[in-house]
Amino acid sequence: AGIMNEYALVVGIITLNDVMTTLMGDLVGQGLEEQIVARDENSWLVDGGTPIDDVMRVLDIDEFPQSGNYETIGGFMMFMLRKIPKRTDSVKFSGYKFEVVDIDNYRIDQLLVTRLDNKSNVPAPKLPDAKDKEDSAA
């Protein structure tokens, strides 16, 4: 079903999945694959479609430049590069290097994020499941 605003413009679509999710909750987990995967304490593989807010939280970045112009980390890269991205294109920002490692039809599919400053007094950002691994090791 289409959703129209007061000016008769289509502003959205409601799918059967939306209705079922509203009524019954998330029965089937969508996107079970992790969008941000820690390789080690100073590097992460990040899906290009990862919301910029998730990247900010995991990497402990306060703000991305002109973040109103994009919603995903792939959008950030395209905004900063100002061109169609290719493999090995990179951007340095806030102590991190964001490097394109996979492209799919001009869309950034995956990034490698590497911390540039390896200061020992800066704690590594932790993913939600990192605490579970520490607890089981103790």
UniProtKB/TrEMBL annotation:
Key words, A-Z: CBS domain, Cell membrane, Membrane, Repeat, Transport
The organism's place on the tree of life at top rank: Bacteria
Pfam families hit by this protein: CorC_HlyC
Gene Ontology terms, MF aspect: flavin adenine dinucleotide binding
Subcellular location: Cell membrane
Cellular compartments per GO CC: plasma membrane
Coarse class of the protein's main subcellular location: membrane
Membrane topology term: Multi-pass membrane protein
Domain Transporter-associated: start-end pairs: 37-117
Protein name listed in UniProt: Transporter-associated domain-containing protein
Organism annotation: Salmonella enterica
